Amino acid sequence: MSTVFEEFPAAPPSGMRAGSLKELIEVSLYMPFPFLSNPHEPQAAEGVDAWLHTWGLTDDPAVAEMIARTRPAQLASYNSPTVDSGILQIVANQIAYQFVFDDTAEELGRHWPGRLLPMLCESIGILRDGRPPSTPLGAALADLHRQVGERCTPAQAERWVWRSCEYVHGLLYEAVAQTHPASIPTGLCTSIRALTAGVDPFYPLYEAAQPCELAPGDLYHPVTRRLRRLSVDAAVWTADLFSAVKEQRSGGIINLALAHQRAHQCSLPVAVTLAVQQINGTIREFERLYEKIKPELTPAGIGYVEGMVGWIRGCYYWSRTVPRYADAGTAPMLT
Asked: Among residues 35, 176, 213, 224, which is most buried (max CB within 10 A)?
């Protein structure tokens, strides 16, 4: 399957003074993986709009506007450039669903925490126990679960369910953390962020994209498991860089850059620089371990790890241009 390459403007040389946070990130972030996109992106965009409409998730104009600013099919295309159209559509649908779910959970957790628990419990009941949904969000999740079950093997679908439950629980931890933001150290913030990232549930879909089921040696090798952790962190922390201004203005706290700002009592550009250093080390460790384990992996195992690479690369190129994070391009570096 062919993929689409695109030329992005080159980052300014390292000696050039960055004028905005976005330019600062582009100057300093290490991104060894070139841009790719999936040729089925236009169809996925149409499909995700229709799917959201079917379940009433974009009936609210504010949600429809959020989706337009977030471009879930574009993120799916960038992080899943080589998968077939069927897998791409599930990825795009799930990304869209998670953005709607996450934004709703964040709003409830911050203002009406008593209404958050029923929402999260409904999701766990659907995923773990097969309970019927009672809300539009629940109905969309049940349909997403059906899509995954039709494309994945039972073992892959079970891993998807388990990791999706972890994501739901992460949103509850975030709501608790939000009640005492000053007392959340960086390590605890990153632990919660690993769950709320919602990236782990996508990896069983990359198993399903392979021509055969992964061998246990590919899936459960300690190095492969470490690669999975590193890729999730690198992907979501990169998005955190570009979303830091948005999160700061809205009062969010589970963000790597903002965690460094709290820990070091520094300006946001300094905090972003510290976060970039952490991300660069994470990506370099991923590269080193992948190079080490690659000769031992089967072709299916390599395809699976390439799915992890896709999220590291995709989150970067998507975050640079998505309207959801446009504030990073206007915020001055000296703040």
From this structure: 224
Specify the range with the lowest mean pLDDT, choosing from 24-38, 80-94, 200-214, 246-260: 246-260
Give helix 222-250 / helix 186-196 axis angle, nearest 10°: 100
Q: Name the CA dihedral angle for 48, 51, 52, 55, rounded to a multiple of 10 degrees.
A: -170
Cβ atoms of 234 and 286 within 8 Å: the answer is yes
Question: 291 vs 123, 260, 286, 311, CA distance in Å?
Answer: 38, 30, 8, 18
Q: What is the rounded CA–CA span in Å between residue 259 and residue 277? A: 14
User: Tokens at residue 11, please?
Assistant: 């980052």
Q: Which CATH superfamily is domain 21-30+39-330 in?
A: Farnesyl Diphosphate Synthase (1.10.600.10)
What are the extents of the domains in the chain? 21-30+39-330
Whether the predicted pLDDT of 18 surpasses 60: no
- Rounded to two decimals, the pTM is 0.92
Instruction: State the alpha helices, DSSP H only, in the chain.
Output: 21-28, 41-54, 61-70, 72-79, 85-111, 113-129, 136-151, 154-178, 186-196, 203-208, 216-219, 222-250, 256-264, 268-293, 299-321, 327-330
Q: Which amino acid, one-letter code, is at 25?
A: I
Is the model's pLDDT at 11 over the cut of 60?
no
How many Å apart are CA 61 and CA 174, to the nearest integer? 26
Write the pLDDT tens digit of every residue in 193-202. Answer: 999 999 999 9
Decide if pLDDT at 251 tops 90.
no
Calculate ∠ Cα 33-35-38, nearest 5°: 120
Q: How far, in Å, CA of 255 to CA of 151, rounded? A: 33
CA 203, 209, 211, 212 torsion: positive or negative?
positive
Residue among 267, 266, 202 nearest 236 (CA)? 202
Q: How far is CA 128 from CA 132, 142, 145, 197, in A?
A: 11, 11, 11, 20
